[in-house]
Write the structure tokens for this entry.
Amino acid sequence: MKVSSSKSQVSSLRFGVGLIVLLIAVLAIAVFLGSEKLAFLELTDEQSAILFDIRLPRILLGATVGVSLALAGASLQSLLRNPLAEPYLLGVSNGAALGTMLAFIFFAGVDAARPLMAFAGASLATLAVYQMAKSRAGMSVERLILSGVIVTTFLSSILVLLTSLLDAAKLRSFTFWLLGDLSQATKNGFYLTLIVAALGTIVLSSQARALNLMMIGERDAFDFGVEVGRTRLIVFTTAAGLVGVSVAASGSVGYVGLIVPHLVRLAIGSDNRLVIPFSAVAGAIFVVLADTVARVAIAPRELPVGAITALVGAPLFVYLLRR
């Protein structure tokens, strides 16, 4: 048993180191690739501006968005004991998008309005889905997905109605953003997302043991001393904050919280003490890769990064749903 446990620890350590090395490699590749080739040994003033003011903030923002969405997905799946729980599918992302759009229309001059209202929208959407999915018999996959579809559809209809308040220029910009857009990344946006992602990683990692027990069942977790209500509140609030800030910065980038935790669990098992931090690193890799493809596929034009993640995530969702 001890030998088996030791081998498992070594395997997990190798996997974690491999993820970190891969993240560094992906970040380096993303810096080099783009519609504008950069001569790094002799950067002109224009190339320096492109690198430090546009490309690096965008790449780093993509990484932190990936961290946030993967963390939210991993924690929600463990909390709800449901492999299909994911911010985009549960309507949390649309709630954050609606909050961001309201701030975009009515509080355009207030910088703090977008992340705050995105967090409020994500929180309300999470609460609505959770309350609708609960029943005396428990929370089934079908009820959770149906509740998510209902909330997502309702919020999408409100978003469509609100677009009628925008002029043509704002409508095009907001539509592209809604599909997942990192092209308007700023240093301040990256700093805010980084702080929230770091805090989210710390908070959710501190709940890893409780989440492991809650995966068995809430009653069993309570018998083992887990404060179920407190853990649920912490995870829901943290996930809503991660999704809200990410959506405010980059729009709705779907399927990250579904794909990444599953791949990590397939590699190392279901221990949240490993799944949560490893999902954070893998999420950064996935979004940076997707955004790099979005930037170079039809350069100098760009694709929404959300379209790339959906092309990968939708087939996997169908596969998981059939199983």
User: Anything to note?
Assistant: The chain has a mean pLDDT of 83.
